[in-house]
Write a structure and sequence with these properties.
elongated, alpha+beta, 2 helices, 99 residues, 6 strands, Elongation Factor Tu (Ef-tu), domain 3
Length: 99
């Protein structure tokens, strides 16, 4: 049986095109995050991305990790949490170069 190994499409895209469609992003929100929260686009239907990890330890800010489309993160598209439309999700700068 022939099949694809895990990550084969991503590896091929990086090798042949030199780009990835999605990237792990560090983001923050001024509202607390729950297990059922997702990152959604404020102005459009798409981008219902699961949150991989989050921390509500800081009183004024919650941090999260999510795999988001590069285009949405780079374009400055306004994002929010699925269970709290008033929350703004802001992409944070990483301490290393992603390109």
């Amino acid at each position: 049986k022939k099949g694809c190994y895990t990550g084969q499409e991503i590896v091929a895209r990086m090798f042949y095109r030199g780009t990835a469609k999605r990237r792990l992003q560090l983001a923050s929100s001024s509202h607390s995050i729950s297990d059922s929260s997702k990152v959604v686009a404020r102005d459009s239907e798409g981008l219902g991305e699961d949150i991989l990890a989050f921390s509500n330890t800081v009183a004024t800010e919650s941090l999260l990790l999510a795999v988001l489309p590069v285009q949405a993160a780079d374009s400055g598209e306004r994002m929010t949490l699925s269970n709290n439309a008033e929350s703004d999700v802001c992409i944070r700068e990483l301490p290393y170069m992603a390109d």
